[in-house]
Amino acid sequence: MTKSPDAGRVRQALRDATMESHRRVDALFADFSLDSPQSYRAFLTAHGRAVGAIEPVARPDAPRLPLLAKDLQNLDAAMPAPLPAPANDADGYRWGLLYALEGSRLGGAMLSRQVKEGLPKAYLSAVHGKGEWLSFQRALDGAAVEGGEGWLEDAVQGALAAFALFTAAGEEARAAAHG
């Protein structure tokens, strides 16, 4: 398979446009200790609130919400109510949400190694199969071409909205844990 020199062009544009929001989310969730059942439960609860709002709108091919619910159940915790769902039906916006969700799978692979032995980690371990990330990038590029003018800006807004939901859920969980 030959790699097109433009493959991942839209992913790179989204990455550049959302870098600060992404860093903020990473820093926020780095405060959670994944080897402590209580802190890990708070981490998953926060993700449940954000992913619960994003997945129904983004419609990923491989939803992880059921895996997250199962991990929470295994920690004797209920699936939390989702944050209010983003209200924008533009195709680019949906792809921006999807970009953030699919990108979080990459981070999940790294984080799953930090989860204490014996704690459930189906959600964080749900990584892309061989070639799936590249395939997603190609689909993202194709959707941008079909979407035309304004599509990329809608996608940026969708990705920023996803990061904002993760930030809100993480801050809420951190405040609840630290009073």
Question: Can you characterise this structure?
Answer:
- The chain is mostly helical and 179 residues long.
- It contains 7 helices and no strands.
- Mean pLDDT is 93; it is low at 1-5.
Give a quick summary of the entry.
The protein has 179 residues and is mainly alpha-helical.
Annotation keywords:
179 residues; mainly alpha; 69% helix; disordered N terminus
**What is the top-level CATH class?**
Mainly Alpha
Unreliable runs: 1-5
CATH topology: Heme Oxygenase, Chain A
Helix residue percentage: 55-70%
Number of domains: 1
* CATH architecture annotation name: Up-down Bundle
Q: Tell me the distance between the termini.
A: 53 Å
Q: Could you give a short account of the major beta sheet?
A: none
Indicate the proportion of strand residues.
under 5%
Which series of helices and strands comes N to C?
HHHHHHH
- Cα-atom Rg, whole angstroms? 16 Å
CATH superfamily: Heme oxygenase-like
Strand segment count? 0
- Oligomer type: single chain
What characteristic shape results from the CA principal axes? globular
Mean pLDDT: 93
Helix tally equals 7
Alpha-beta classification? mainly alpha
Q: How do the strands and helices of this protein lay out in sequence?
A:
Layout lengths: L8 H22 L6 H22 L6 H10 L16 H22 L9 H4 L6 H16 L3 H28 L1
